[in-house]
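Run: sequence + biotin -> complex structure.
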Amino acid sequence: MRIIKVNATDSTNTFLREIQRKNIFFENLCLVAYKQTKGRGQRGAGWISEPGKNLTFSLLFRNMELPANEHFKLNAATSLALLESLQKTGIKDLSVKWPNDILSGNSKIAGILIENNLKNGKIKDSIIGIGLNVNQENFPGLPKAASLKSLSGKDFDLDSLLKILVEEIEASFEGFKNQKIKDVLEKYHTHLFRIGKVSEFELPSGESFSGTIRGVSMEGKLRVEQDGVEEGFLMKEVKLRY
Ligand code: BTN
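>> structure
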């Protein structure tokens, strides 16, 4: 995949979306920015990253032709590829917090923002945005954030790491295309944070409840069991307290 580097942009996801809309390139692309001025996170949040210290990049996958109801395959494929690449760096206790945060222990080291373009009930183009904390050492106001450096004490070369991640994600996408969503989920569950453990959740109303994570459904809902009854939650419907 061709990798394009820019010094600064508002958000690599937004930039790639413009490229995709204007049909400037017709191939899959990776866009990496030294600095984002308006990095975007999930649930409408921002993504803050010290310029030049971390990886902030997006991948544009074209002509996926994936049934829209299998969209969670993309989350699972990306999270697993990222997790498996990071395992090779020696970072310990890695897991995926639903839907696709990468944690080491209780600390978040990477976030993923996937934005799809649908046509006739199918995902046509997909933009996979990844923010990975690499060499940043302090995260003011973000007590749960960590980086590869803060966890290992080592500095990482951003270009080599990016190359590894892009190759791993591409390979993972190729592999997952022909796999059943059920099998993809099974693998995802083996790395799912707090699966089978009683956890605290927060509803949009601010109310909280405790339940046990049983897994993720094919539609990507978090399956939580409370008093023997299982319920599925969409991302905006529940937040895990950890
Ligand atoms: C999250 O955990 O909330 C998702 C964060 C995703 C951040 C990345 S950084 C590169 C790409 N461009 C963006 O604006 N967001 C994603």
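>> summary
Residues 158-177 form the longest helix (20 residues). The two ends are 37 Å apart (CA to CA).
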